[in-house]
Amino acid sequence: MSNIVFEVKDLCAYYDDHRVLSNVNVKIVEKKITAIMGPSGCGKTTFLRCLNRLNEFSPSFKMTGKIFFKGQDIQTIKNVNEYRRKVTMVFQKPNPFPMSIFDNVAYGLRLMGIKDKHELAWRVQMALEKAALWDEVKDKLKKPAVQLSGGQQQRLCIARALAIEPEVILLDEPTSALDPVATAKIERLLESLSEQYTVIIVTHSMSQALRISDYILFFYQGRLIEYGETSEMVKFPQHEITRQFLTGKIG
Length: 251
Ligand SMILES: Nc1ncnc2c1ncn2[C@@H]1O[C@H](COP(=O)(O)OP(=O)(O)OP(=O)(O)O)[C@@H](O)[C@H]1O
What we know:
Layout (H helix, E strand, L loop, with lengths): L3 E12 L2 E12 L3 E5 L6 H8 L9 E9 L2 E2 L6 H7 E4 L10 H11 L5 H14 L3 H4 L12 H14 L4 E5 L7 H14 L4 E5 L3 H7 L2 E6 L2 E7 H6 L4 H7 L5
The structure holds adenosine-5'-triphosphate.
């Protein structure tokens, strides 16, 4: 049987009095790729940010219901930074820090207290290899990260996330700013990462979800309308609204 990494129970989310998620109940499977889909404004990003408590930075945000990460109610977690190390986020726009390629990847490791140069060096190399970027940057690790292409910057951000050895990688439309070649590289990377990590990705691209995801969560107007294996959902959507979305009639 598949292991469940997140169990979401009756999740409602609000910005001030505006309800943006309504009674979401879902279980997310470990070491698979889950795509979060739905029309603009349906609550995809809000849902993703609930999973690692990032919404807490929005003063108007409130939620009810519960989210369990491997059985633990995440609201009871005291060390939120440690939790966000395990459940890490990669954003839509590549956001390398204004420092060298090496220091970007080493950043989280140094925060974790790793100072030994050899350990930092091999951990940075490992993360860059996992992010399929090592061969492209191994001779310019001291160069500023902002000199990399957009696609390379996004893989650097993934390497930075991987360096701190997370269990779950949340990605919010990670390829929307990239060209098709860079997108294909990231998609291949995510497929290989899902052997070791749980990958949860917000995407607007149906073809991307079809190419890489094992499961789809389909949201509409703040409600989780349908959840299931990608191949099944695409062939046999259970709801008319899902069918309309899948066939491009809404979106
Ligand atoms: N920080 C915020 N403060 C107030 N309202 C917000 C905030 N963030 C999002 N919203 C509102 O919550 C609703 C859901 O937004 P969210 O970004 O989660 O949707 P989405 O499905 O990810 O949209 P998109 O596909 O356009 O990125 C929208 O009506 C949006 O305007």
